[in-house]
Amino acid sequence: MLQILMETGARASELVQLRVEDVSLAERVVTIRDGKGAKRHQVPIRRDLAQLLRLHIGARRAGPLFASRQHGSGPTPHVLTRQRVGQVVRRVARYAGITKRVYPHLLRHTVATRLLALGMDIIDLQRFLGHESISTTRHYAETTAATLQRRFDQLTDPAAHTLVASIQQQRGDSAALLAADLLARRRAERVIIAGA
After folding, report:
1. What are the pLDDT digits (tens) for 36-77?
2. Is 88 helix (H, G, I), strand (E, B) or coil?
């Protein structure tokens, strides 16, 4: 369940509505039928996740992808609630020793900023997340730019500032983030060697 959230960027409300029929293991696609605004979109999944889902689904051909152990009283019994998904996410975070507040939408935010940092085009990310408006998706790009600014500010070498700014202008935020990270590591290694 957590891997679906982390890799597809599904909202908790979308996750609880996923059905076995929404997963195509052969095509490695999850169809989110009732996204925000009743929009439908397909999200590609990695081979590893498809294999985990194959094991999770087993011989089932229909029904909720993630069923609740408790009997429900609503129109769709045995379905997890958004609140329960939040509880599971928080419990796993605590078990992992994560002290930061973790909630399902944070996982959506994480996958979005990660894909941007890896070079995914913002229009492709808009489709991946199922956003109707590109302005909603730009929020994630602004977060990536803020990360770039923080890393950039950590560098003290004026030549590094010029280099990272040039890379950002020519290649975009993702390439500049990578360059800033590499320069910061190189600088840290030089400090360690000088102190030895």
Report:
1. 656 788 899 999 999 999 999 999 998 899 887 766 565 555
2. helix
Q: Which amino acid is at 189?
A: E
Residue 36 annotated to the active site: yes
DSSP state letter for 71? P
Q: Model-level pTM?
A: 0.65
Active site residue 140: yes
Name the catalytic one among 28, 33, 82, 105. 105
Q: Residue 165: which residues within 8 A CB-CB, separation 6 or more?
A: 152, 176
Active site residue 187: no
What are the CA-CA distances from residue 177 to residues 3, 100, 160 (Å)? Answer: 25, 23, 12
As a whole number of angstroms, the distance between CA 119 and CA 83 comes to 33
CB atoms within 10 A of CB 130: 22
Q: Is 108 a catalytic site residue? A: yes
Find the helix packing angle between 134-154 and 173-195, rounded to 10°: 20
Strands 23-24 and 41-44: unpaired
- Catalytic option among 19, 28, 33, 36: 36
Residue 129's Cβ-count burial label (10 Å; 0-12, 13-18, 19+) is buried
Q: Is 190 a catalytic residue?
A: no
Domains of the chain by start residue, with CATH: 1-118 (1.10.443.10), 135-196 (no CATH)
